[in-house]
Amino acid sequence: MTRVAVLAGGVGAARFLDGLVRVTQPSDVTAIVNVGDDMEWAGLHISPDLDTVTYTLADLVNPETGWGLRGESRRTLERLSELGGPDWFMIGDLDLATHLYRTHRLSQGDPLSAITRDLTARLGLQCVITPVTDDRLRTVVGTDAGELAFQDYFVRGRAADPVHSLRFEGAESARPAPLVTQALEAADVIVIAPSNPFLSIDPLLSVPGVRELVTSNRDNVVAVSPIIGGQAVKGPAADILSSLGHDVSALGVARIYAELASVFILDEEDSSLASMIESETGMRVVVMPTLMKDVETKMALASGTLKAALDVA
Amino acid sequence: MTRVAVLAGGVGAARFLDGLVRVTQPSDVTAIVNVGDDMEWAGLHISPDLDTVTYTLADLVNPETGWGLRGESRRTLERLSELGGPDWFMIGDLDLATHLYRTHRLSQGDPLSAITRDLTARLGLQCVITPVTDDRLRTVVGTDAGELAFQDYFVRGRAADPVHSLRFEGAESARPAPLVTQALEAADVIVIAPSNPFLSIDPLLSVPGVRELVTSNRDNVVAVSPIIGGQAVKGPAADILSSLGHDVSALGVARIYAELASVFILDEEDSSLASMIESETGMRVVVMPTLMKDVETKMALASGTLKAALDVA
Prior knowledge:
The structure is a homodimer.
Chain A: E1 4-8, H1 11-23, E2 29-33, E3 39-41, E4 44-46, H2 48-57, H3 75-82, H4 93-107, H5 112-122, E5 128-131, E6 138-143, E7 146-149, H6 150-156, E8 165-169, H7 178-186, E9 189-192, H8 197-205, H9 210-215, E10 221-224, E11 227-228, E12 231-232, H10 237-243, H11 250-257, E13 263-267, H12 274-281, E14 284-288, H13 295-312
Parallel strand pairs in A: 1-2, 1-9, 2-5, 9-10, 10-13, 13-14
Antiparallel strand pairs in A: 3-4, 6-7, 6-8, 11-12
Helix pairs in contact in A: 1-2, 1-13, 4-5, 11-12
């Protein structure tokens, strides 16, 4: 039995987790998911990363986008647009049911973690998916145009604005959700998923106690580079590395993760960086293909990552 | 020019208004609509009577039910049901867009009356549709099982519980919406639509100032009986007349409206009650067909009602 805790953002983390639950006991896996991207939209509480992870693991996700649901329709959103309502956030008719369910339960006083547990159980998932916190946490993005709420930056602004700063509103007073501390303490392996270090992983670490639990387990922590050949597989990670003054490469990411992880998974395309990362960060670097194109490559990355972590620990 | 203000509930009022705007200048018509049935559902603000009136006048209503939209689908609700969410309130995918639009605008601080104005303008309506108040007003229904929120009584409980009492939460501090006072003061004719006197008309009158504006214009007020042959055309009006100790007939309704109206529109089926109503209530009774089966009968009732009111006024 290998208990695995995964620090997770959206699409990249979801794909990694999809491989992971196929190469280990799903019930030994806990995904600790970012909620800094959460938003209120027309009265509804939307948790994009929780939904992406859940839909992916439940095999409901739209494979074209990596988020949203397969076979989705947009009748409601189209009518909303005709009415002159806010139509920039792409919400499908089936997806809407998740947001209504979540909002209904929240309005009854249930914590987000319990709602997520019930949703994932209803969808037949064996692994644990938990928000990092049940408290309000919101990523605020500093741009030339001033501070933007995360989805205003990410979806409405298509992540086009250079990011000068990030802060996580509510972090100081947020507490880890019940299963988060437990999963991090019990984990044989903690994986930092191939997610955006700034937008996905940092919000998780901003919740008091989480960073400490990770660093104190550094020997068991493995980070998977989200950068391949100087580019993010998806999303604005490379742009943000640049605008915040980091090296736009796996090395730049490795430096950020050096105090958290003892093992770093580097894509073969970047193998020339391996010795530099090892000498500069003290992490052991393991090179393998990291691009997740299909089930096989997801599984190979997950098992390779576990093996690399367990070899060291 | 005949300025007409209509005190309106849901389906019956909507059908009356649909006839009215076809026999007079729509821009001279103001529908003052009940919001005691409004509810919060999964984070969304739902205004069933405003929607029924709006959808009907925009020729979007489902003709089978008299509420909801034509060509509606229920993908979201079906998925919500699969997720274990609240599925007793029948919300369609297109209808949902209205609730999202309204909730979004409310969350931005816009008053319900302004939102309703924009929605009706977007749908091309010429008449004014306004909530009776922009403030929170909620009908609470006293039953054997205790007090129920309106939709818990009406939809969830299918209006099956005997009603012992009614109160209108928030009424004391509610203020008429901007156009309500103006419309009632300027009206050449005020129509009490064929709606439920207890569930639709009473909440309107509970808003401070509204009852006074109606009674001080009593000479111009005409009430249309919602009871035909001792039965409500739709809904629990007859049951409530009975459980609250009123005569279950147009006479019972006429007694309730006597202090508000000077003219009472009675269905031909009840013509035998005409002289009794006249002598007992002091209202002038005008007998005509009141069942609204199609556009022609709606128009005939509306023009007959206007004519009856203007003959007296």
